[in-house]
Amino acid sequence: MSTSELRPALSEITPTTPDEWIQRAAEVAAILAVDAAVRDRAGATPYDEVKLLKDSGLVTLLGPTEHGGGGQTWPTAYKVIRTVAEADGSIGQLLGYHLLWFWAARLVGTKEQIAAVEEAATTNKWFFGGAVNPRDADVVVTDEGDTISFSGRKSFSTGSKVSDVTVLEGTLLDSGTHVFAIVPSDIEGLNFLDDWDNIGQRLTESGGVTLNQVRVGWDQAAGFVGKTFQPRVYNTLNVPTIQLVFVNFYLGIARGALETAVTYTREKSRSWLHGGYASAVDEPAVIDAYGDLQSKLWAVEALADAVALEAQVIHDNAWEVTEQQRGEHEVRVAAVKARATEVALEVTSRIFEVTGARSTATIEGLDRFWRNVRTHTLHDPVAYKRREVGRHLLVGELPEPTWYS
């Protein structure tokens, strides 16, 4: 059954409060959950799923209310991402990345650019992709007078084929200054390679992209005035902001795995023949394992929510945030990223210990949760997150703003 056939399940009431938006995310998750395992195996481009996100209003969650957006904050957005990811980790990631790139103008742009982008993106319900893989420094930006052109290649471009617009990043040929710009995804010279074939997050359309003289006007270069970039500390908040996106779809996937496993244990698991218990739910080892996993997940979810509230203070003070505030926040983000990674991997792996051998059948789809977490948690080494926390604790060192910290 396709998601399009299930869309009448969406409420006709337009959400206005954080709780109502989280409930809307739960409605979307319920639709996605019906055939999540089937869609994961098929690996088809998620056009219907992205349309569902648009129809639900989640793509404009952070958009200004005067343009028809939800007008919500990042703490709500993170919970929405987590909720969607419970049903489908790929779609949770797509939504999370979209919301980050929707926010890109605020992170880097001038006030005039921010207003223009958010009005257009909200009014037109743009879905964002991003060709901004930081490990690839091979996109060169050339000054052509009134225009600039992007040429090169990125190994990853999440959202690619399903996006309306794509955020580009490259470095100016002479100075090495980074330049961001938003372009239509069907612009001449932007070619998606359709080569995403990984074990997890299979519906994220995260394949490579080539850029062949993709041209935009200098006025579209985010944060530039008269060909000169206007720096501020908030420019560096893209990393902690998206790292919290990661945290929340990891936790969503883990929650989805745990709840799916609980249902399986209640309805299908058999007690061990030598245990002496009539039902698997009465076995001490099963009870202990579920209690352990639930407790750990609750703890990290609480930490994630606390750090999200801390982040919102910085977003609210975007034009005045200091390096000290930014650095201390990044340490907290690093801490929750490390714990979320470890707990999500543990939950998605250990569920098989309490569901039993028959739960490994392909039709059950329990493996997708682990494959999804394992694939994306390799984005950047968790040891370096713990290093940030340890160095700050021992010597007060603040993480240097980089593409990963």
Automatic annotation (TrEMBL):
Residues 245-379 form the Acyl-CoA dehydrogenase C-terminal domain. Coiled coil: none annotated. The lineage of its organism: Bacteria, Bacillati, Actinomycetota, Actinomycetes, Propionibacteriales. Residues 33-114 form the Acyl-CoA dehydrogenase/oxidase N-terminal domain. This is Monooxygenase. Keywords: Flavoprotein, Monooxygenase, Oxidoreductase. It holds the Pfam family Acyl-CoA_dh_2. InterPro entries: Acyl-CoA_DH_C (IPR013107), Acyl-CoA_Oxase/DH_mid-dom_sf (IPR046373), AcylCo_DH-like_C (IPR036250), AcylCoA_DH/ox_N (IPR013786), AcylCoA_DH/ox_N_sf (IPR037069), AcylCoA_DH/oxidase_NM_dom_sf (IPR009100). Gene3D superfamilies: Acyl-CoA dehydrogenase/oxidase, N-terminal domain, Butyryl-CoA Dehydrogenase, subunit A, domain 2, Butyryl-CoA Dehydrogenase, subunit A, domain 3. GO terms for molecular function: 3-methylbutanoyl-CoA dehydrogenase activity; flavin adenine dinucleotide binding; monooxygenase activity. SUPFAM superfamilies: Acyl-CoA dehydrogenase C-terminal domain-like, Acyl-CoA dehydrogenase NM domain-like. GO terms for biological process: L-leucine catabolic process. It comes from Kribbella antibiotica.
